[in-house]
Amino acid sequence: MSLAHGRPYLAIPGPSAMPDRVLRAMHRAAPNIYEGEIVEMTAQILADLRRVALSSGHVAIYISNGHGTWEAAIANLFSRGDKALVLATGRFGIGWAEHARAMGVEVEVVDFGLQTPADPGRLEAALRADTARKIKAVLVTHVDTATSIRNDIAAMRAAIDAAGHPALLAVDCVASIGCDEFRFDDWGVDVMVGASQKGLMVPPGLGFVWVSDKAVAACRGSDLATPYWNWNPRIFAEAYYLHFAGTAPTHHLFGLRESLAMILDEEGLENVWARHRALAGAVWAAFDAWGQGGDLGLNVADPAFRGSSVTAARIGGGGAARLRAWAEQKAGVTLGIGLGMAEPGTPQAGDFLRVAHMGHVNAHMTLGTLAVMEAGLKALGIPHGEGGLGAAAAAIARAAV
Ligand SMILES: *Cc1c(COP(=O)(O)O)cnc(C)c1O
Fold first, then answer.
1. Any ligand 1 atom below 6 A from CB of 65
2. Could you tell me if residue 1 is inside a domain?
3. Which of 40, 154, 179, 394 has the highest count of CB atoms within 10 angstroms of its CB?
4. Band of the pLDDT at 401, cuts 50, 70, 90?
């Protein structure tokens, strides 16, 4: 028998659960894109995008997904033959490096593997070795969605400064913006990329690039920037359509206006971070208990280096793939696939999954997901320690004081 009939729940790391309010805000007639409401609303959105990143710099909006923002950042940061230093902690860091290489940038990857964060000491050493100062920027992922590793961005800035190197610091926050604490100004970030469909709770289709004054000045002559991807006309738009190099993404903007109000003006950014941290804590508590009695566990050992928006885990013997199928077919919950953790097609590929807790997610949604997972472990006969759900409930009880 299947118990999946009812409202399905997508617990994958993007697209995330969206508020009905956001969807309703998009359900309307097309607006005039030359004057009136949308022009004023966009000015407010740009100001609020700076608030959500704690940035006093600039924002360019693209009609793209996260991969598009990678290319936007690369196109503006580099000229052909410039060098990028990429700190990789999972599939998304590797992916950003591949895009840079394909665009004609010389790329050096420092790979920290799939379970440990980027080490500031190795970053400093790599920059000190660059005596010719060829490295224009350091690219790093804040939370790598494949591994759920969260990197210490302030420590990366400190390492760049300790090396006395002029490299810009560019950070991929697609999985963390609106979920995990991020401080663009305070952490000395120069460029940051994000997208609409994760913590910002809007359908996929909007990409954002935040840029410091320093990065605007340092990248003015970059010869990879084609007219569409060039951030200058978008940032310093003298006419409304220049913000988007053409027609505005009208309905996405109406949705974004609503979600930014919910995050910044209603719940509050710090409360949003705390909610995501608490939900993550419930997932971690469940896995810690389950792992006492079976071949399963979290990917990242140290909680300080785990993202708040997504949790990567291993269930041996192909258990992750079987649990994902069970949860979807029997209980209406879709869990995330493992990404970049094992060669596709090998038996190990079925050992990894991800639980997302990003966006419009509350305690009952995450506890419900964990309850479904525990039911699935039992139904499938996958050995696991007892008490996972109790531990998750206790973590929520501790957090919700
Ligand atoms: C989701 C994600 C991307 C890619 O975003 P798309 O919108 O799927 O192109 C890039 N980086 C990180 C860290 C992500 O989580």
1. yes
2. no
3. 179
4. confident
Ligand 1 centre distance from Cα of residue 387 (Å)? 34
- Give tens-digit pLDDT for 215-268: 999 999 899 999 999 999 999 998 999 999 999 999 999 999 999 999 999 999
Helices 153-162 and 120-129, axial angle in degrees (round to 10): 30
Residues 298 and 361 in one domain: yes
* Residue 127 and residue 165 in contact, taking contact as beta carbons nearer than 8 Å: yes
- With a 6 A CB cut-off, is 69 part of the ligand 1 pocket? no
235 and 172 housed in the same domain:
yes
**Is 28 labelled as part of a ligand binding site?**
no
Same domain (yes/no): 255, 276: no
In the predicted model, is pLDDT for residue 399 greater than 90?
yes
Residue that terminates a domain, selected from 242, 265, 288: 265
| Largest separation between any pair of C-alpha atoms in the chain | 66
Can you tell me the distance from the alpha carbon of 326 to that of 222, in angstroms, rounded to the nearest whole number? 50
Q: Tokens in use for 48?
A: 């609020």
CATH number for 343 = 3.90.1150.10
Q: What is the whole-number distance in angstroms between the Cα of residue 314 and the centre of ligand 1?
A: 21
